[in-house]
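Researcher: I'm preparing a figure for a lab meeting and need a structural model of a single chain. I don't have an experimental structure, so a prediction will have to do for now. The sequence is pasted below. Please return the structure as C-alpha cells so I can convert it later.
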Amino acid sequence: MSSPTRIQRRRTKGWRAPEGAVYVGRPTRFANPARMVQAGHGLIVQWGSTGGGVGTFPADGVEARRFATALYQSWLDQPEQAETRALFRALLFGRDLMCWCPLPEPGQPDHCHAAVLLELANKPSEAPREG
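Model: Understood. Here is the structure written out cell by cell.
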C-alpha cells in the first residue's frame, strides 16, 4: 500500500476525486477554523467565521497560509483536543486527503491543514489498531 497523500481539489472539467479520498475542507468536521480573509491589499487570518483577525499578510497568501496552518496544528495539539485527535486518526488513517490549497513545490513545506491531518492520522505510533 502506498503512503497517503494530499490532493488539490479542482473544478476543471472531467476531474474526479480519487476513490477513497476524503475531502477535509469546509464544511467538514476536519476543516481549519482559521480562515484567510481579504483585507485591503493583503490578507488577515481569522479564527472561525466571526473571530477577530490576527495580523496582516501579503496578498500572495503564502505567509497567511503558513500562519493558518500553524494555528490549526497548535489547536489540535491542545490537551482538550485529545478526543478530536483520536477521532480524526480513526477516520482518516490510510486515506488520501483533499483540500483546495495549492500543492507545494518539490522540497518545500506544505502549508495546508490537510498536511497536518495526514501526519496526525498516519503516525506509526498512533495508527489505529486493527482487530
